[in-house]
Amino acid sequence: MEKIMGKRNIINLVRDEVRGLRPYDALEIPCDIKLDAQENPYPIPGTIRNKMLKALKPLLFNRYPDSGAKELKRIIAGQNGVKVENVMLGNGSDELIQSIITTFGRTQGKVLYPVPTFSMYGIITKALGQIPIEIPLQGDFDLDIDSMLTAIKKDRHRVIFLSYPNNPTGNFFSESKIIEIIKRDKTAVVVDEAYFDFSKKTFLPLIKKYENLIILRTLSKIGFAGLRVGILIARPEIVKEINKVRLPYNVNSLSQAAAKVVLENRNVIDKQIKAIIRERERLYKGLRRVDGITPFPSEGNFILFRTSKNANKIYQGLIKKGILIRNMNQSTGSFGKGLLNNCLRVTVGTSFENRYFLEALRTLI
Ligand code: PMP
Q: Which residues pair with 327 in a beta bridge?
């Protein structure tokens, strides 16, 4: 009888890059107050919920979704002043990051991004057998443009990722530095505007001028993380290429139908966004008033802050009090040069959640 392959052997078959990976840690720690993942804390208003349910009812679940998500793309294109040919959708912007690297990567190709930044750039780069080139940010969290340009010159970078504003630091990188990078046109430059709805600044108009510019957006941060709808906007000739690596039915019919309702009722969501921006300012001021806490200004729906005490202990202390935030206290690996020593990141919650969190933090510091 053929010998059954043991566990050790099958693991030996896994690619080295994959074996060395640490998965994205979407922690599932049960907590009353969840402020770890940049979600919108407000539930969908009843009016939109009802419209959504109505839109879902006639869907034919025995049929595949519209592969091209034509109607949803038409709405997104219209709202952003671009053509349908400029738009591609993903199962969250995570999937679009993967599609971009798949499109531009080479055998042992290089992907460049500043650190600390969104961890999925690194995880997907490695998973696809590409080599990450991580350039630490300056102490003020802006781009170290000289090191970035030197790295671009040294290696043939196929893709550069710039989170704008940057997760987890919350700041915009200097516009002029980003333009300088885009102008080195031998690389595709992805400006990831996942937090655009809170930051309001965009590079989108520049896709007319620069053919190597790709903009990413998402519905996740404005209340629809569960739908998994990411948006890519770029010149039609790039979209056409990236679209070739997209899996045929990547945005399911429920998400397409629900997202259409969301976007057709943007005014209701915009009210929630305004409330989150107001709360962000309150939370920032509240954090500044806590002794031993230094918050960094943020353009997103989250705030990074440094603690004078051991951040791991504060993070654990908050969990014990039923509050989950994100521990950024990592000085090695993709977080670069200890820039986030004793740093934690909190998502802006409702006014009650933010007050509850501040109260708990005060008792721990
Ligand atoms: N880009 C950035 C900068 C992010 O912070 C996130 C979410 N943490 C994403 C992309 C992924 O978002 P999505 O839910 O659309 O996959």
A: 344
Chain segment 1-13, per-residue pLDDT in tens: 455 555 568 888 9
Q: Residues 66-79: pLDDT tens digits? A: 999 999 999 999 99
Q: Whose CA is nearest to atom 6 of ligand 1?
A: 194
Helical axes 92-104 vs 120-127, angle rounded to 10°: 40
Q: Which of 194, 232, 241 is nearest to 213 (CA)?
A: 232
Pocket perturbation via mutation, ligand 1, pick of 94, 197, 214, 229 by most ligand atoms within 8 A of CB: 94
Distance 145 CA to ligand 1 centre (A): 24
pTM above 0.90, yes or no: yes
State in Å, rounded, how far the first CA of the chain is from the last one. Answer: 64
Q: How far is the CA of 7 from the centre of ligand 1 (A)?
A: 34
Instruction: Dump pLDDT digits (tens) for 305-337.
Output: 999 999 999 999 999 999 999 999 964 445 555
| Strand 157-163 versus strand 131-136 pairing type | unpaired
